[in-house]
Amino acid sequence: MSRVEGARKMIEITGLNKWFGPFHVLKDVNLTVRDREIYVVCGPSGSGKSTLIRCINQLEYHQEGDIVVDGVEVEKGGKNQSLIRRNIGMLFQSFNLFPHLTVLENCTLTPMLGLQTPRKEAEETAMRHLERVGIADQARKYPLQLSGGQQQRVAIARALCTRPKIMLFDEPTSALDPEMIKEVLDVMVELAEDGMTMICVTHEMGFARQVADKVVFMDGGEIVESDTPKAFFSNPRYDRTQAFLSHIL
Amino acid sequence: MTVVFEPKPSRPAPSTVVGPAAWLRQNLFKDIPNTLMTILGLYIAVTVVGWVLNWAVFNAVWEAENRRACLDAVGRSGACWPGVAEWLPNMIYGLYPKDQVWRINLGFLALIVWMVPLWLGGVKSKVAIGLSAVMLYPFLASYFFLGGDKGLVWSALIALGLSGLVWAWATALCERATGLSVGEWLGLKVAGATDDLKQKRVRQGAMAALFLAGLGLVSLWSLPEVRTQYWGGLFLTLVISGIGITFSLPAGILLALGRRSKMPVISMLSTLFIELFRSVPLITILFMFNTMLPLFLPEGSSVNQLVRAIVAVCLFAAAYMAEVIRGGLQAIPKGQYEAAASLGLGYWQTTTQVVMPQALKIMIPTIVGNFIGLFKDTTLVSIIGLFDLMNMARAVGEDSDWLGLFIEPFFVVSLIYFAFCFAMSSYSMGLERKLSAGRDR
Lengths: 249, 441
Fold this sequence. Notes:
Number of strands of chain A: 10
Helix content of chain A: 25-40%
Number of helices of chain B: 17
Strand content of chain B: under 5%
Structural class of chain A: alpha/beta
Oligomer: heterodimer
Shape of chain A: globular
């Protein structure tokens, strides 16, 4: 039995369909993520993994189906997107830090601007999170002066500063050198252990084995199968999953 | 067995790569064609500078009654400066009454004084001071330059300008001396208040008191009216281009945002405006505004000719600026918008805090290039009969004493334009260096 059996549903997706023009990217996707659960989503490129998590915080709008985030129904066309995004932090493959602001300013921008936190309090919170990801000593530098791994850790701290209940990771380590991948994964593992609800699109199968509650395999816009890491890696049901795993393991 | 890896220390570069001798060899005397070009370039430079110096300084006439006397003395081999000297006040101030010229000087001095804190160290609110100068100085200057009857509204605006100047300097001095803003310092020293709310009240009170004092001063003080017909020369050029430059940047930003807007009506209107004004020469727009606008206005109402010219220049410049800004906006990666959106920032927060600072920084050279172009384009207002610097220079050669004296005044006008444009250009280069320091690898 899962460690979070019966916990509150943080994300509930039912019958999700999305098209990019005539192209059907997501086909009848159903997914339920409970509080403190860690989902790892993998699959070949173009399978709709990123689009799926981008639909959750409305960076992409869906056309059919329902998405409920922490009890709030996501309205189609982004009508309540700011309300939805308030509870969700997101990490990107290309970090997307704001290059004209220092590391600290990157972290305090949203709390001060969007949430009206006084500067002092915002800076203290930011420093606490930077400490946690191990870059407090770089707080006054600009993002482009840091290595890729450090930048991604700043991005994690920046997301945490908005106090999200859910974190979405869109291939956070794909643009990094092997030595830097580990430092980012370590932070993610720590987050997972602290009880953050997470959906990670990643091909770091070691990470999946270590912390995931469920591994989801997607192909052609559908969820092919979804299982606990143990069952998923040792005994995949579909030939498509087996073929994919044989390529990346 | 493990061997410890020791990185080799870096050695200094050999003298064939660095140092002045290496630079000379690599850039000026690399091979035979390169050396020949260097010598040829040097020869041309020396000859041209020699000609100009001979004409403008060594062979020049410095004292004469009229152009005839100059021609008798040196012919055409030297410049005839007395004509320019006699007309110089007109070239700078136009036909502004001589006893009122101090108002122009004081007006521009006020602007310089307002801007000085931008170059002082230890001043934190430079952006606010710069903005205050841009937004409030025109009210103050308008009264210096125009004078005459000031109604209640204009008095209030002038007082706003005056108190803005005082507040800007108070901010600069306070931040330099104590590191606190004026509000914090006054709050602490006068009221002993440490919490934000009380300090805010003290600040607002001080601002209101300053404004009322300014209003009192303004109502006591009056200047005779100098109608815009008498404005001219460099002064007029600076007024038109100054207003054009200050207006074009914010208007251009709004138009560029409008053109990229997802709302079709706004985007269409912005595009229409931009394309309309960009595809018509400035001269045409000036003519249109000058001759056709009065036809459309109701009988009896008239718009000052200078205002017509300024409006035409502003709209033209805004359309061009909009495309420059749009170019900058397009250079911002989509990821920046997505990151801002995922953090929960709204449209205006994203635009003002994330996108615009980056876009403007990228476009500084082009923006300043546009400013320089606008500054020079204002010479076209001479076509509709305004006596700007250029038109004034032409007037020298039409004076009966100095008939035909054209080259010398145009030479001086070129120098003046060069000084202003080069200053703008250097400032933009400095700004670029400062803004990119420590931010790019």
